[in-house]
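Sequence only, no structure available. Ideas?
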Amino acid sequence: MNRDLPPTIRKICSLLLLAALPLAATPAAAETIANPVAAFSGLDKITGRITNFDVYIDETVQFGALQITPRVCYTRPPTETQRTSVFLEVDQVSLKGSVTRIFTGWMFADSPALNAIDHAVYDIWLVDCKQSTDVAPPTAVDGTEAPRLEAPADGGAVDDRG
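Reply:
I predicted one. Tokens follow.
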């Protein structure tokens, strides 16, 4: 700082510099991209088979005894550090047909064990969020039963959405 300036001016400049310092040190917030499709993998622990499946946002699909409903799926632009996350609800359907919510929360593709679904038979984890998929979008918006994706007995993926 210039020593020729009067002390009050130097003091004001120092205060302005200190006030601006936190603004310069704050990182820019990463932009998030909302995606219409969440890609999951599911493990049937009894058979050891893994099934990959795509689910549209606000669509409910069934994997074994679990019903999965993603509410939002976010990614970041390719120029940012990747952080793929989904907010989802998971319900368990009993043999008697009653439905119990077993998970509501965020799941992260880069940390699948961080908020894992605690189930004795099935594991489900987020793989990615997508802008498109080859799975037809849901058509049941009139309150009828939502399309379901069931884990097949032979291990291959079955899509019975019509």
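Confidence is low (pLDDT under 50) at residues 148-162.
Hope that gets you unstuck.
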